[in-house]
Specification:
The structure holds two protein chains of two kinds. By secondary structure, chain A is α+β, with helices and mostly antiparallel strands. Chain A is built from six helices and three strands, in the order H-H-E-E-E-H-H-H-H. Chain A has a single domain, classed as Sufe protein. Chain: A, CATH 3.90.1010. The chains are: A alpha+beta, B alpha/beta.
């Protein structure tokens, strides 16, 4: 079971059972819905962004352990980050779970999120791990456009 | 026959399938994804190899030796399939890519001819997307209505609703014989009888039926039957549309091209006779021959024996899975075939699938192309173990042990 534990690490199982920031934000000014039609995972990401800084972030939805834990840990890691920082973390996270070239992204740069490195051994699960992140990204991008047209 | 005798046969049957000699993740394969596709016996692989190595040629047009051989093998397969489902004539056996194409053919050819604005097409609540979307496309184009026969919490159709939904505007009933996500065996004979009382033709989706039970289209009196080769131990990319000759003869072609014509000028094309009118272009010759070999293989064992064996195995599976705490079986119809869909409290089916895979156990997780069924049960997905003729109680026991491991990981 050692290799399974690489994927289902205690931290991941803990966030799956007790997802953090698992709620809508009443005062959200960024929001997007994510859906993975392959597995039926659905989630919504809410953010309250002030002066380019993510003051608060939450999510709701239903999905597998990997997608729920990833969403939960994403909210913890992005709270207080600037939008640019959030996008940079997304890129590093994406590289962490998809990279097959052997070059290890610096785990220190990702902090706790490094526990998702096991996902790369399970290509069909990459979408689970990145669903919340893509949704967060869409929320930042989408609302920017709205703001720009006002 | 006792279970022990069946077990004995199955030991031998497993040796016919080379895939079981391949380790998966270092474990011996426990293949429980037969509703998605079945493994292939050596006889099917040999038939395909024989075609490509000894008789490869295009069919129906060459005067040379190989073309004659290939044509004969292909047409012999068609007759094997005719006998397999007891069709009256080989003219009623149309080779297609699979059940999906068969249903699209009927919707586009028969449907577009007969369905008018305000008409209705009746399907069931447990259809695979392939028996929903072709009818939706047709209804959208024609301004017709798609009506749905509902089901209950066991996954059984509500027959009295079916009776009520049948009305003078109904132009077609399309229903699955066996549900791919629930395993329910629908009372297709009764469905057909009632529809015929109102002169409504019935298409039966047999994709999850023909590999598990004896099929007799004349006894059933269905108007169309669609099924896929790869779910009945044959190759991918080949399937069959059975249609009553009277109906097929009156239907316009589905696709145009070579082989489906008897003469072409720029002014007027005369179509070929049945079934070739519906087989435009060079067909999947190797696939057709492989499917013929699959039919031979199934008949050498006997469909009634297969049904009895698989039924016993499914009952065993339902019993031992049912003993697991926090496990709920989705699809508990009285009449069921070879599908064990389940969910585990607090654990998503994808996580179940990944952990079982590490144990060499192949199941399907997801919505199984039946999103309306998932919506009905209020769940995003299920884990589905589906049985084939080579599965054993050992496979079920491995599944149970695997599920215990899943629960251990998530404890």
């Amino acid at each position: 079971m050692a290799d399974l534990r690489d994927l289902y690490q205690e931290v991941i199982l803990d966030h799956h059972k007790k997802p953090r920031n698992f709620h809508k934000l009443e005062n959200a000014n960024r929001r997007a819905d994510g859906y993975n039609p392959l597995c039926g995972d659905k989630l919504s990401v809410y953010m309250q962004v002030e002066n380019g800084v993510i003051r608060d972030i939450g999510f709701v939805g239903a999905g597998c352990a990997i997608s729920t834990a990833s969403a939960s840990m994403m909210t913890e890691s992005l709270k207080g980050k600037t939008e640019a920082e959030a996008k940079a973390v997304f890129e590093r996270f994406h590289e962490l779970v998809t990279n097959h070239s052997g070059s290890q992204p610096d785990p220190a740069a990702l902090g706790k999120l490094a526990v998702f490195s096991g996902v790369r051994e399970y290509p069909v699960r990459v979408k689970c791990a990145t669903l919340a992140w893509h949704t967060m990204h869409a929320a930042l991008e989408g609302n920017k456009e709205t703001v720009a047209t006002e | 026959m006792t279970t022990a005798q069946y077990e004995l046969n199955v030991r031998r049957i497993r040796e016919d399938f080379p895939i079981f000699r391949e380790p998966v993740n270092g474990k011996s394969l426990v293949y429980l994804d037969n509703a998605a596709t079945t493994q292939k016996p050596q006889a099917v692989l040999d038939a395909i190899m024989r075609f490509y190595t000894k008789e490869c040629a295009n069919i129906h047009r060459g005067v040379h030796y190989l073309s004659e051989r290939a044509t004969e093998s292909y047409e012999t397969s068609r007759d094997k399939i005719r006998r397999f489902i007891n069709a009256a004539s080989v003219q009623e056996i149309v080779f297609v890519r699979g059940a999906t194409e068969a249903i699209n053919l009927v919707a586009q050819s028969y449907g577009r001819t007969h369905v008018r604005p305000g008409d209705e097409v009746l399907i069931s609540a447990m259809e695979h997307h392939s028996n929903i979307v072709p009818w939706q496309l047709l209804c959208e184009e024609k301004g017709a209505w798609l009506r749905i026969v509902p089901m209950d919490g066991n996954g059984e159709l509500l027959f009295e609703h079916y009776e009520r939904l049948l009305n003078p505007k109904t132009r077609m009933v399309a229903v699955t014989n066996v549900s791919n996500s629930l395993g329910t065996i629908n009372p297709v004979r009764e469905i057909i009888r009632l529809a015929h009382e109102r002169n409504v033709p019935v298409l039966v989706d047999g994709a999850q039926a023909v590999q598990h039970m004896r099929m007799d289209v004349q006894e059933l009196d269905c108007d169309f039957l669609a099924f896929s080769g790869h779910k009945m131990y044959g190759p991918t990319g080949i399937g069959v549309l059975y249609g009553k000759e009277r109906l097929l003869a009156a239907m316009p072609p589905y696709q145009g091209g070579g082989d489906m014509i008897s003469s072409v000028t720029f002014e007027k094309t005369l179509y070929n006779r049945l079934p070739y009118k519906f087989e435009a272009g060079t067909p999947n010759v190797a696939g057709g021959i492989g499917l013929g070999a699959a039919v031979d293989y199934l008949q050498s064992i006997g469909m009634d024996s297969i049904f009895a064996y698989e039924r016993d195995l499914m009952d065993y599976g339902a019993q031992v899975l049912g003993e697991l705490e926090e496990l709920r079986i989705i699809g508990t119809a009285k009449e069921k075939a070879s599908v064990l869909s389940f969910i585990l409290e607090g654990i998503h089916p994808h996580d179940i699938g990944t952990i079982l895979d590490r144990e060499g156990i192949a199941i399907r997780t997801g919505h199984h192309c039946t999103q309306p069924v998932m919506e009905f049960f209020g769940i995003p997905a299920t884990a589905r173990a589906s049985l084939g003729l080579y599965n054993t109680r050992d496979d079920i026991d491995a599944l149970v042990a695997g599920i215990r491991k899943v629960k251990e990981v998530f404890r």
